[in-house]
TrEMBL record:
<feature type="domain" description="Tetrahydrofolate dehydrogenase/cyclohydrolase NAD(P)-binding">
    <location>
        <begin position="142"/>
        <end position="278"/>
    </location>
</feature>
<dbReference type="Pfam" id="PF02882">
    <property type="entry name" value="THF_DHG_CYH_C"/>
</dbReference>
<dbReference type="InterPro" id="IPR036291">
    <property type="entry name" value="NAD(P)-bd_dom_sf"/>
</dbReference>
<comment type="subunit">
    <text>Homodimer.</text>
</comment>
<dbReference type="InterPro" id="IPR046346">
    <property type="entry name" value="Aminoacid_DH-like_N_sf"/>
</dbReference>
<dbReference type="InterPro" id="IPR020631">
    <property type="entry name" value="THF_DH/CycHdrlase_NAD-bd_dom"/>
</dbReference>
<keyword id="KW-0658">Purine biosynthesis</keyword>
<feature type="domain" description="Tetrahydrofolate dehydrogenase/cyclohydrolase catalytic">
    <location>
        <begin position="6"/>
        <end position="122"/>
    </location>
</feature>
<comment type="similarity">
    <text>Belongs to the tetrahydrofolate dehydrogenase/cyclohydrolase family.</text>
</comment>
<keyword id="KW-0486">Methionine biosynthesis</keyword>
<keyword id="KW-0028">Amino-acid biosynthesis</keyword>
<comment type="function">
    <text>Catalyzes the oxidation of 5,10-methylenetetrahydrofolate to 5,10-methenyltetrahydrofolate and then the hydrolysis of 5,10-methenyltetrahydrofolate to 10-formyltetrahydrofolate.</text>
</comment>
<feature type="binding site">
    <location>
        <begin position="167"/>
        <end position="169"/>
    </location>
    <ligand>
        <name>NADP(+)</name>
    </ligand>
</feature>
<keyword id="KW-0368">Histidine biosynthesis</keyword>
<protein>
    <recommendedName>
        <fullName>Bifunctional protein FolD</fullName>
        <ecNumber>1.5.1.5</ecNumber>
        <ecNumber>3.5.4.9</ecNumber>
    </recommendedName>
</protein>
<dbReference type="Pfam" id="PF00763">
    <property type="entry name" value="THF_DHG_CYH"/>
</dbReference>
<dbReference type="InterPro" id="IPR020630">
    <property type="entry name" value="THF_DH/CycHdrlase_cat_dom"/>
</dbReference>
Length: 282
């Protein structure tokens, strides 16, 4: 059996074309106005600066705009909160992205939670998370929501399937598990204190690797015919799952690179477009 490749890169390109058409239609109805994503970068971490730039570029590729706000390394929580408040109140801004991580003197959770729900297009607020968990409308956290969009596009059956999510971070493992639960999967969440991890992974119809360690999840833990989603990305150009031996015995998998990664930014700008459409009443 040759596994289906869940090609996030191609899918992101396909969705960008769709979004370009939606943005054009929106502009025509909204007197030329376009959705705007405000990006907030605190400090000078080069990786974070690159991510923020990529997000701004992705907005422009589909005809939307971005507004980059850069704050110094010694910014306080109060100063960042004031900046977020200004963006919340700015009718020209439709989505707000606060780039993680912020310098350690800042209370990141307080700042995330200060983003108003209708502009939380990266899905980072507790309120948005809670609403998503309850099945109420809210923008999803970008990486797990991007994974859900991949699974939906490739029509991967989730209902009644056993999904094992390895990792429980606020931005990935936890929202992933709740999104899969919302799609009627039976979900097991594993973490650093889990016992018998290989045995649990062996039971999975769907495995999500969100551990942050290169090829930590071994190929021989994964059963034949499973669907494998690898959210990890490491400098060695591998993910959190040992993927190479799986290509001819699982049903489908996300490659690394080119799987989950491209759909994260795509989901952020997709949700910004949705926020813009709502704000313009279209
Ligand atoms: P994280 O915050 O470091 O969380 C890692 C999770 O893995 C934690 O819940 C941790 O458990 C669990 N874990 C660590 N060691 C374990 C072990 N030995 N056995 C079982 N579980 C273990 O990482 P993250 O931010 O969720 O990111 C996870 C991966 O996804 C990383 O490779 C990251 O690069 C990638 N990622 C990709 C994107 C993208 O856009 N493609 C976005 C975000 C993250 P505890 O909770 O018990 O500590």
């Amino acid at each position: 059996m040759s596994a289906q490749i869940l090609d996030g890169k191609a899918l992101a390109q396909h969705f960008e074309e769709e979004m370009r058409r939606r943005v054009d239609a929106l502009k025509a109805k909204a007197d030329g106005r376009t959705p705007i994503l405000a990006t907030l970068l605190v400090g000078a971490d080069p990786a974070s600066a690159t991510y923020v730039k990529m997000k701004g570029n992705a907005c422009r590729r589909v005809g939307m705009d971005s507004r980059a706000i850069e704050l110094p390394e010694d910014t306080t929580t109060e100063q960042l909160l004031a900046q977020i408040e200004e963006l919340n109140n700015n009718p020209d801004v439709h989505g707000i992205l606060l780039q993680h991580p912020v310098p350690e003197q800042i209370d990141e959770r307080r700042c995330f939670d200060a983003i108003s729900l209708e502009k939380d297009v990266d899905g980072v607020t507790c309120l948005g998370f809670g609403r998503m968990a309850m099945g109420e409308p809210a923008y999803g956290c970008a990486t797990p929501k991007g994974i859900m969009r991949i699974l939906e596009h490739y029509q991967i059956p989730l209902e009644g399937k056993h999904a094992v999510v390895v990792g429980r971070s606020a931005i990935l493992g936890k929202p992933m598990a709740l999104m899969l639960l919302g799609a009627n999967a039976t979900v097991t969440i594993c973490h650093s204190r889990t016992q018998n991890l290989p045995e649990l992974v062996k039971q999975a119809d769907i495995v999500v690797g969100a551990v942050g360690r290169p090829e930590f999840i071994k190929a021989d833990w994964i059963k034949d015919g499973a669907v494998v989603v690898d959210a990890g990305f490491h400098p060695e150009k591998c993910g959190d799952i040992e993927l190479a031996p799986l290509a001819d015995r699982v049903a489908a998998y996300t490659p690394v690179p080119g799987g989950v990664g491209p759909m994260t930014i795509n989901t952020l700008i997709f949700q910004t477009l949705e926020a813009g459409e709502k704000a313009f009443g279209v």
